[in-house]
Every structure is written in structure tokens, then in C-alpha cells.
Amino acid sequence: MSFPRFYPIFDKTDWLKRALPLGVKLVQIRIKDLAPEELRAELTLARDLCREHGAALVVNDHWRDAIDLGCDFIHLGQEDLDIADIPAIRRAGIRLGLSTHDHAELDRALALSPEYIALGPVWPTILKKMKWERQGLERVSEWKRLVGDTPLVAIGGMTPERAALAYEAGADIASAVTDITLNSDPEARIREWLKVAA
User: Fold this and answer.
1) Counting C-beta atoms within 10 Å of the first and last residue's C-beta, which end of the chain has fewer, N or C?
2) Helix H segments across the chain?
3) Which helix (H) or strand (E) holds 58?
4) Who wins on pLDDT, 167 or 132?
């Protein structure tokens, strides 16, 4: 598939209700710490909202639910890969995105032929504590050489201005979280992102 160049990540379907009508066509739902029935309800709503707006939904981590609900995509971190049933995901026809931070993780990810590979944090991020330092634009360029035709997602500390630099360095897609969710006018910020990614 041809990926949109802007890829926001949200932790609640309320954000999808705001972002999808603006033209976002690729979105990840990353939900932590919900009871199973609440999680299933949120993922079902996210799936339905994305279908209604012609957008691709990426489910972070919850691969069993994504299979059951017939979702488009699953995103897995390296720790998730240790327990995920990749053959079951593939049999279900669900596409796969994988996080990478170093060469060993990249080799592991490439061996699974994912639909995209994410690299981060390109800039320092406030979203979560990570053992990896800022990767930088040089690493983005290096990763793009190594992944070849596989789409490369740049994530971590992203703003529209930094996304333009990441695209120049070789990223195909830029992903944002707090640049939108902590913004005083999230809708206006999403519109900025869509212009940069056009």
C-alpha cells in the first residue's frame, strides 16, 4: 500500500473523532491499562471510525483483539515481538509495523518483512522514558539505506518543522503524539501536519 506521510498516535478514540474528519488517513491507537471489555469497546469504535473515514487503523500491541476485530494493522515493539504470534497475525491478513532502535532490532524486524519500520526517538521525547538517546537525522538516513523499499517511520520529538527535516533525511512517514495532544489547538496543529505531509 501507499502510506500517508503523517501518522498520529492517540490513546483514546475521542482523538480519532477529532482527527479523522480533518483528513488523517493513517492513525495508531495505543491504549494502556484498560479492562479487557473496555479495551475491546475502544478498539471496536476505533476500527469503525477509521472505516467510516476511509483511514487505516494501526492497533498497538493488542494483536489478539486486532485479529478478532479484523483490523488493518498491528504495531509491535521489540518486547511485544517476544510474545506475539506472528504466523497467526499473517494468517489473519493483518499488516505489521515494527519499532526499532538499534541494528540488532533492525535485523530482527527486517527478517519479518513488515509493512513499515519505525525508528525513534529521532529527537528527545517526553512521551516515555527510553534507554536510547536521540537517534538524529543521520540515523534516519542510515536506516533508509538499510530498509530500502520498506517504508520508514520517524518518531520521537516530532513537530511539523522537524518532520520536514526527517523527510529530507529519508523518512517516508513522520509520527507524532504529544505535539498534537498537548497542543492548545490540536485541530489547527493537525492541519499544519497535513500541509507539511502533503
Assistant:
1) C
2) 13-19, 36-52, 63-69, 78-81, 86-91, 103-111, 136-147, 160-169, 178-181, 186-197
3) strand 56-60
4) 167
Tell me the C-alpha distance between 92 and 128, whole Å: 31
Burial category of 97 from C-beta neighbours within 10 Å (exposed 0-12, middle 13-18, buried 19 and up): buried
Assess contact for 57 and 50: CB atoms under 8 A: yes
For residue 71, give the 3-state DSSP assignment.
coil
Backbone phi, psi, residue 166, to 5°:
-65, -40
Read off the pTM. Answer: 0.95
Sign of CA dihedral 59, 101, 161, 138: negative
